[in-house]
Amino acid sequence: MNNESTNPQSKINWQMFYLDNLNPWYTSGLWVAVLAVACILLVVSQMASQPLLTMAVIVVWAVLVAGSIMAVLNNKHSGFWVWLQKNLFSSLSNVLLTLLVGLVVVSSIWQVFNWGVLTASFDPERTAVEYRTPETGAVWGVIWGARKLLATGSLGPEYNGRVILSAVLIAILGIASLVVYNERNKNATSKGIVTVLWLIAPLALFIFLVGLPTNTYVYPQTLLLGTVVVMAVYGFLRLTSAVSANWVTIIIWLAVWPVFYICISVIGLSGIFPPINTNNWGGFLLTIILSIFTIVCSFPIGLLLALGRRADFQGIPWWIVYPLAGVLTVWLLFTFTPSYLKGARNFLEQLIAFSPLLILVAAYFFIKVFKGNVVAAFCTLFIELVRGVPLVTVMFMATRTVPFVFPPELFTDLPKVLLIMVGMTLFSAAYLPENVRGGLQAIPKGQYEASDAIALNGVQKMRFIILPQALRLVIPAMLGLFIGIFKDTSLVYIVGMFDFLFITRNITANPQWLGLRFELYTFIAVVYFIVSWFMSRYSSNLETRLGVGQR
Fold first, then answer.
1. 363, 380, 360, 366: which is closest to 311 by C-alpha?
2. What are phi and psi of 525, to 5 degrees?
3. Which residues have CB under 8 Å from 479's CB, separation 6+?
4. Could you tell me the CA-to-CA distances from 356 to 316, 328, 346, 351, 476 in Å, in that order?
5. Helix (H/G/I), strand (E/B), else coil: 139
6. What is the number of alpha carbons within 13 Å of residue 415 lying toward its C-beta?
7. What is the pLDDT of residues 126-171, one digit of tens each?
């Protein structure tokens, strides 16, 4: 009996190997020739500068090619060598491309390693121009030498302890959260304690980084107003069944504002944490504060805008809107138009004089599109108008235009950084509703009907049924928005703030650090990458725990 017929894999079939692997090469002969010439030229050039490294790459490449060929000849259908053959060595052009890319990548990595580590200088005392030679690599001493500017900008050194205290507080709460907010931890008390500490943390950070005036006395009207606001929040949370309704809870909520207000007054009068000029914030401190404030504050505002845009409230009927619009139009035509026409200098200004007629057009669209729904109209117009302008314009208007439009006494003492925070928050809040709206539209109609069937009101329906599912679906989209917010903080240089990126101009203006922009930008890029990567990993872990895409 023929041995080849009984055991067909005992003998290598060279003809099939030729037809499957070698014969197709002829169809791309020119491309293969070009790659071969490129590989030869690259090998020759790198052999002159990096002979050992180049030989090592060629030897590794040859071994991998030989191993993948033997795997094919022996009819192996799985394993590392077969993976190489399918993904890197499936044709002669891919074989040459693998060598070409391998030489370029390994050479680049070696040059970066040589520049950044082997020939680099780490001494902050030897960063001046006279210490640098053509053979000197990176001068990383500038990072340590300029650490104060990179961290806090022009903030006075006497406040470094308060900045460090804030960082330690956040680090402790972060580590505690990783331990407590774990699926294996079933202790509700520890989770509640950490949650309360996170709620108190913004107050502590405000005291550390902003400070308190020394004349913070207790005023009865402020005490009463604060208590009313806190109880209004309690009432809303009780409506959503987020808090319980018993005498102990009510007493605790009633005592929250008085205790908080008295503590603030005592700390302010003590003078332990005097006020800080927030316009001196800079560096990484400014970037982190803007990012966290914008993300935390824009999320609830954007959520309300998304719900408001889809709100199905009873609108104002047309028989009220049209008469009011007509009366307002006639009144403006008789008061505004004649005086403006007298001072009109061209045809365009004459047209502007008749702009009150647009009120009738707005009233028509208000009834036609929004059915008289004021909430949906306001939310939609806010979202579309704010999204229609760039962030730079919003920042400029917040810091330059707003103080001229509103009464001066309202903006005399407001710091520039606060105006930037408000502008960035409103801008980001206009983008978030579109992400949330996509999640709301993805919820099946049966979920709404089931919520109505168990007699949930509108707030409870959103709180317990709809929003948890909608937000779970849009976690990746919200992550992209939050990372964009973190990186968009670099635009504050437009209004004269020295953030983590723009502070490099102040650093390189020092003669000792002149010309070291590349080292600074490399370090800043690594920091931006680490923070963005951490946010991305946290989002991925959250998606895994919530089963996004799995159920």
1. 380
2. -60, -40
3. 535, 536, 539
4. 21, 8, 18, 10, 45
5. strand
6. 12
7. 888 888 888 888 999 999 999 999 999 989 889 999 999 999 999 9
Q: Please give the distance of CA 345 from its chain centroid, rounded to a whole number.
A: 48
Please tell me the distance from the alpha carbon of residue 56 to that of residue 75, in angstroms, as a whole number: 29
Within a 10 A sphere around the Cβ of 436, how many other Cβ atoms?
25
- For 271, phi then psi, to 5°, come to 75, 15
User: What confidence score (pLDDT) does residue 411 get?
Assistant: 61
Which of the four pLDDT bands, split at 50, 70 and 90, describes residue 2?
very low
Q: What is the pTM of this model?
A: 0.84
Write the DSSP symbol of residue 158: G
* Residue 403: C-alpha distances to residues 147, 408, 479, 522 (Å): 35, 6, 33, 38
Q: How far apart are CA 457 and CA 219, in angstroms?
A: 39
From the list 486, 499, 427, the residue with the least C-alpha distance to 279 is 499
Buried b (16+ CB within 10 A) or exposed e, 509-537: eeebbeebeebbeebbeeebeebbeebee
Percent of the chain past pLDDT 90, that is, above it, reads: 39
The amino acid sitting at 507 is I
**Angstrom distance (rounded) from CA 53 to CA 106:** 8
Per DSSP, 78 falls in state S
Instruction: Collapse the DSSP code of 514 into the 3-class scheme (helix H, G, I; strand E, B; otherwise coil) and give the result.
Output: coil
